[in-house]
Description:
Radius of gyration: 16 Å
Strand order of the largest sheet: 1-10-9-2-7-6
Shape: globular
CATH superfamily: sav2460 like domains
Strand content: 35-45%
Number of domains: 1
Bound molecules: calcium ion
Helix content: under 10%
CATH class: Mainly Beta
Distance between the termini: 37 Å
Order of helices and strands: EEEEEEEEHEEHEEH
Structural class: mainly beta
Number of helices: 3
CATH architecture: Sandwich
Largest sheet: 6 strands, mixed
Amino acid sequence: MAINLKKGDGINLTKTEPALRNIRVGLGWDKRSGGGDFDLDASVFICRLNAANEPKLIADEYFVFYNNKQSPDGSVIHSGDNRTGDAGGDDETIRVSLDKIHADAREISFIVTIHDAVARGQNFGQIQNAYIRLYDDATGRVVAEYDLDEMFSQETAVQFGSFFRQNGEWSFKAVGAGYRLDLGDFVGGYQ
Ligand SMILES: [Ca+2]
Ligand SMILES: [Ca+2]
């Protein structure tokens, strides 16, 4: 059964999902009738740890987003930019093959942002049916999900969660931290 995550929840899937190797992260949202367009973006940061144990991008190309749809190691593939969320189901997806990830990678973090949120005066609370889900890509089963419009109504960015590698083993930790930031702020922090 999928775990419905609450704000700030931390869950460790190492024990409950030991077989997870191929993951899909799905971001979905719908336009409000009569409202303007909302452009949500799903992004991934594939990081090593620096001397201070902080996650930093292995290289700029390991930031996977709408303008860089595949990591150089081929482990992370983005479906491409969706600017309206018009269709049903997942509007943007990111696939991750844990077995292909660069040997130096220790952390893979997933972020959702609203494009131009400040300029457009937007936040998640104005969007309909916004969610982010973690699937087992082999079976399509939902492992965990956040309801973004209810949980993060005042915010413009959410750190969904991260995969961590320790001693060769990957685990996923949901973070569920909301921010009033844009994508550029996150990129600065991971460089
Ligand atoms: Ca988008
Ligand atoms: Ca949609």
